[in-house]
Specification:
By secondary structure, the protein is of the alpha/beta class. It has one domain. The strands form two sheets. Strands 2-1-3-5-4 form a five-stranded mixed sheet. Helix 4 packs across helix 7, helix 7 packs antiparallel against helix 8 and helix 7 packs parallel to helix 9. The longest helix has 17 residues. The chain starts with 6 loop residues before the first helix and ends in a 6-residue tail after the last strand.
Length: about 260
Amino acid sequence: MRIVISILWLIAVADCLPAQRLAPTSPSLQAFLDICPQNDPYYAIFQRDLSILRNGSVSSNPSCFEPYTAMPTSQVTDELVIMQTIRVAYYMDLGRSDYLPWTPFRLYDWMKQRVAGFNIDPTVTTDTAACCSLINGRLYIAIGPMSAAAHTAALGIGGLASEVSLFAHETRHSDSNAYGHVSCCGISFGCDQPYDEANLSPYGIQYYLYKQWLSGAINLGFSCNANTATQVANVLRNAANSLPTRFCDTPPPAF
């Protein structure tokens, strides 16, 4: 079974309906993404809620030059990607609650209640993350060093959505020991047993978020331009379609 999503419908629910899209006070998704985190009015809240450490110590504030999406990859840092990801997570469902099947809170509020932030750890494999490191009595998601390709991807909504889903995946591990991985799909401790929306596993949460983004249930604000909407939808769809193979029983359908 394949989930068929109409590009025309994606366009219709994007910037064309500003009341329920990412950062509704911005004129467009592009305008929102072009803002550096430190120029966001809620920057102090992001810093308060989710700390960014490097090797267990508070990291310096990341440099950023607007427009963010046009920054040279060589100037993008792991700290900047993490902070821009936090920003996207904060705005993407602002004002909502009790709509995610695993928590009554919106995604950002669930994450900040479960973890204290992120620790960039050179011992973690590049472009991966792990939950969790206990630092000064608090839980931090361990973030491996990011590659240049990851930095480039994070200049757009596709890469930032991928980071949001990864952070949510790791946060789920903090909920209970029941959310560890198994090896049944042929990847050593890289699989989840069933896809069950009544009890979503870490990979299940990632898939569920992509499902909401692609359907418009969580409106990321795709451009009303048909070409842009197609490009964004394809990036999200390709990422989502890497996830069904991570399940051993009743995997979700491909998009």
